[in-house]
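Q: Okay, next protein. This is Spondin-1 from Scylla olivacea. I've checked the sequence twice, so it should be correct. Can you predict the 3D structure?
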Amino acid sequence: MRWALVSLVAACLWAASVRAQSSTCNRAPLGTNAPKTPGSNNFTIKISGNPAKYVPGDVYTVSLLGWRQEYSVKKFTGFLLLVEPSRVPRDVYGPQSVGMFQLYGDALTLYSEDCPNAITQSSSAPKSEIQVLWTAPPAGSGCVIFRATVVEARDVWYMDDGGLTKELCEEEQDNPDMQPTIIDPCCACDEAKYEVTFEGLWSRHTHPKDFPNNEWLTHFSDIIGASHSKDYMVWEYGKEASDGLQQVAEWGSTRRLESELKRQSNHIRTIIKARGLWYPNVNGKTFAVFRVDNRHHLMSLVSMLGPTPDWIVGVSALELCLANCSWVTHKTLNLYPYDAGTDSGVTYDSASVATLPKGKIRRITSTFPNDPASPFYDPTGKPMKPLAKLTITRQRVYEKSCSDTDILRIDEPEFEVSDEDADRPECAVSEWSQFSPCSVSCGKGLRSRTRNYLMPQKAQMMMCKRQLEENEMCAADLLYCADSPDGAFGLAPDFDPRICTVSEWSPWTPCSVTCGKGHRMRSRRYLDRMGRKKCDTELVGKEMCVVAEAPTCDYDNAEVISEDCAVTPWTEFTQCSTTCGKGVTARTRSYLVPSADHSHCNVDLRDERECMAHRSVCFDPSEAEGECGETGEGLEAVG
């Protein structure tokens, strides 16, 4: 009961605060009993940038100004400019934030002593405009409304009518991981043209777990999609993949899906096509343009993430129409991988195993599939980083009346493919060539086809940008490479076997022991240093050797060196390090494979021994100290 009473008192105090903030604030000018004049006489509130919404925390310039004519401007002597909540939700306890006014520091404005969140004049001198800074409230504050009272003369004043009231609502910040809900129907009468930018983010640094060893195969395939109506879905989360989508997901081939789209032309405004991002340009950008109208206001596109069993990235039915009957100006979306449900592989290099019957299209996450072999698996459930980013920018709005739109619905729909240069004569191209043979003899590889400009010089001069090469994955007759570390994949298509050429074998080393059984070794090297990265030719040869046993053989001190620590024979000993007296001589050897990891090897690579120079007598102590390094050692007096 006590808490209920406290709550009631708090609510009453809050209500009183709100009333004091708005309804109890007397905004009528002092010194007159005249009622307000209807209208605004073209006095208006203006906010810098003329925003439709405010960004929380941003600073705006708010002006109150008179109507400007050719040779004069309307002036006013007094004013009160106030900002308050548009409406007060019942679940808000305490005054609602409406931001904060800040004076410019001129002599025209003061904070009002009678009304909170309000500015008034400092004198009754005529003025044509006043300005004040306003810091927008924090996120979640809702809509605010600016209201103004303007005194033009003693008994002529205006309040709230026309341009003397201006409402601003909070701009909801887009979540780049979320799509907006579909608006049905779309009430936009105008049409819009967009550019879509697809940017690859996937790399060994962003997604290091089990990143493909065969990096030359990494890619985002050619992109295919459409702007379409709500009555047709190019692909859909939680549904089965069409045959066309399966071809994109497994091979990066867009032809069948494009045919499916063309058969649905009455539901499609633009077929979206963009070239893929292939190694080494996987983190590049690719572009396409498309159009939308109030019937075809959704956008979908898809690209294969390769090499994978059937994984895709893209967006399905992205809404571009706004509830206020306009079009989105700019939108960014992060893209994550989806399993198309047509192949059961869980790793990048899984061999093809068809899923029968087809599964549903599902988002791949750090917990799905729940298999440590998945390159995105994380037992902590940590959110994944995006693999790509989609940026959609409105380029142009085509003004239409809604009556024009209704007429268009009766006619055949306007249908186009997003190849802007296709209709330019100077950009004419030949037919596509036949696809090249698969680049590998076993496993998965690449194949490509090309076409050419019919007038290459003119096309270059006119900066034509048509796609001249098309790539897709392919499978050799032999589906699995027994000798390949990746099994399902063959050698890179640009592989040159000449880089695996090696030198002649070196002579055999002496036997590793001086008596009994040991081993001897020989080595060779790649003539091209790239061979160490791409070839697996044997570089070290080893065979057993036997040295006749001798009575002097010291079995305990015999040196035994493992194969992975193999060394060259010892060099000859160096000359003695001094010219007189005692010094040091040394011999060295090195590892046969210098690039290997020898941190575990317990092998001496340098052998130093004491020696005596040819002259055992030095001429004087200073010469002996300089040359021998040991004063007085081995000296004789000189008479």
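A: Here is a summary of the prediction. The chain has five domains: 2-170, 191-417, 419-492, 496-560, 567-639. The chain has a mean pLDDT of 80.
Q: Noted. On to the next one.
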